[in-house]
Design goal:
With 360 residues, the chain is an alpha+beta fold. Helices cover 36% and strands 16% of the residues.
């Protein structure tokens, strides 16, 4: 009887040892599992792009390709998403979000961040909430008035040069002169088109007595651009990105630029809570001098305080105006509040400085 029990015990021990040996062999033969989402060791950066300035996505994709060459073990999953989708309460947030003012009303999904890069102070304030930095400005575009060449006293050039400098900010660009609004354009049936928004903050700087366009109300910025491109108006208030696009297809035009820049067209980057370490490294890469110098390929302006990108043309004039003063409303303000303040400033109901003060 004892011998039978002993044999059963030995058999049980042998079976356990065999199972353990098989388990060890299986572990050794199985390739390492991919890190799970949500862990700090993963090699995937999930990136959302909500709104973007003109040329911004092309610049971003080129920069992500450059990043990939130096980080072959890191993949970036880039997703375009609308502001409406981005604000759904059931969202599973990515590691980082690129967005523009008006896309989010609070920073609750973001984590405070820091940077040692010399960024423009006014753009840094744009991404703050309650004295905490929740967004890093990557670049911006401004506003200018474009006038079709046929309404000028002298023929317009088909394309303004916009040479890349990438030089220290201490080196000043040649002074830029802004022509006045042509009388031929003022006498046109549709002299000037504009859309409600932050561009109205600076319209009176460019045209102190803008012609009346009562039928322009309700137009979107894209509709204004398309009407100007199709020559349905003599002039239009456009973003510098839209003017860059027109110059790329050789549309003859002249531009009027402000003496100081007020713009809500800022591209911001935020880290979400529980973001992987690589996401912070990516944002630092996008804000680096090497990345910022390539913004000129898309007609965008740097957020760094130690760079100038343009030597001549409309872009140099806007960059010079930003050197005089650059104001960006707080990114977390509702778009309707910014539009209302801009309209009051445009109408002359309140001085520009008074209209801007609650926006900062």
């Amino acid at each position: 009887m004892k011998g039978c029990i002993r044999r059963k015990w030995l058999i049980s021990v042998l079976i356990c040892l065999l199972c353990a040996a098989v388990a060890v062999w299986a572990v050794q033969m199985t390739p390492p599992a991919s890190p799970l989402p949500g862990t700090s060791d993963r090699r995937l950066i999930r990136l959302w792009a909500v709104s973007a300035p003109g040329g911004g996505m092309a610049w971003l994709k080129e920069r992500l390709a450059a990043w990939g060459k130096t980080h072959p073990d890191v993949s970036v999953y880039l997703r375009r998403i609308s502001p409406q989708e981005a604000n759904q309460p059931e969202n599973v947030w990515p590691d980082a979000v690129l967005w523009m003012p008006g896309d989010f009303s609070s920073p609750e999904a973001f984590t405070p961040l820091k940077t040692d890069a010399p960024m423009l102070p006014s753009l840094m304030r744009c991404g703050q909430s309650r004295m905490e930095q929740y967004a890093l400005s990557l670049c911006w575009e401004g506003w200018a008035v474009a006038v079709h060449g046929e309404y000028l006293d002298t023929p317009a050039a088909t394309r303004e040069p916009a040479a890349l400098l990438g030089r220290p900010a201490a080196t000043e660009a040649p002074p830029q002169t802004t022509p006045s609004f042509p009388e031929k354009a003022r006498a046109a049936e549709a002299p000037l088109l504009w859309a409600s928004g932050g561009g109205l903050f600076t319209l009176r700087q460019m045209i102190p007595d803008p012609p009346s366009m009562p039928d322009a109300s309700g137009l979107t910025q894209e509709q204004v651009y398309q009407r100007f491109r199709n020559q349905q108006c003599a002039s239009a208030l456009l973003t510098t990105g839209q003017i860059t696009a027109l110059q790329s297809i050789s549309v003859p035009l002249m531009t009027l630029t402000p003496h100081e820049v007020v713009t809500e067209r800022v591209w911001l980057a935020s880290l979400c809570r529980d973001a992987c370490p690589e996401a912070a490294e990516l944002l630092s890469f996008l804000a680096s001098a090497a990345s910022q110098q390539t913004l000129s390929q898309q007609g965008l302006f740097t957020a760094r305080d130690d760079l100038k990108l343009y030597a001549s043309g409309m872009h140099a004039a806007v960059e010079s105006a930003a050197g005089n003063a650059l104001t960006a409303p707080n990114a977390f303000l509702p778009a309707e509040q910014v539009q209302s303040a801009a309209w009051q400033a445009y109408q002359g109901d309140v001085p520009l400085e008074e209209a801007l003060l609650p926006m900062l």
